[in-house]
Amino acid sequence: LRATAQQDQYGNTIKLVGVIIDIDQEKRISQALLDEAARDPLTKLYNRKASRNQIDAYLAERKPNEQAALLVIDLDNFKDVNDRYGHMVGDRVMCCAAYTIKKLFRAGDIVGRVGGDEFLVLMKDISDRAIAELRCSQIVKAFADIECEQMEGHTLSCSVGASLAPY
């Protein structure tokens, strides 16, 4: 909405002349572009920069007694998957890995792909470290259970590290 007041010779407003423009479509396109820029193109998880920005914002705003856990996940020997089965299979496995990680966490947690075969998760507002430890073991087990028919029985594994805040 844009409007301009028209006034008489005494400075009294006598009418408003304006225009109403629907910018809903422009806003939707703009938001979609921002979201796309924040996502890894393959897995659709947050990319490194977006993950870091969201984590920094969360840590700056969290309450002093609110505990969080940062998990770093690295696929073990993933280069071998690409070398042995090809990059198309490697991409499918990477998407399966991303989906596997994402489904283990709450919608409000920050899940990102920060490198070729590296992921991170910030678990917000957890009650104690046992929750982070449980998620770490669930991730390791879930990766062992990922199957890809083109990989002929090859199993995946990963390494997970965790840090708590406050420590």
How would you portray this structure in words?
The protein has 167 residues and is α+β, with helices and mostly antiparallel strands. It is built from five helices and six strands, in the order E-E-H-H-E-H-H-E-E-H-E. The strands form two sheets. The chain has a four-stranded antiparallel β-sheet, with helices on both faces. A two-stranded antiparallel sheet has the order 1-2. Strand 1 and strand 2 (13-19) form a beta hairpin. Helix 3 (78-85) packs antiparallel against helix 4 (87-103). The chain is elongated, with a radius of gyration of 24 Å. The termini are far apart.
Write the layout of secondary structure elements.
Layout: E1 2-7, E2 13-19, H1 24-37, H2 48-61, E3 67-75, H3 78-85, H4 87-103, E4 110-113, E5 118-126, H5 129-145, E6 158-165
Antiparallel strand pairs: 1-2, 3-5, 3-6, 4-5
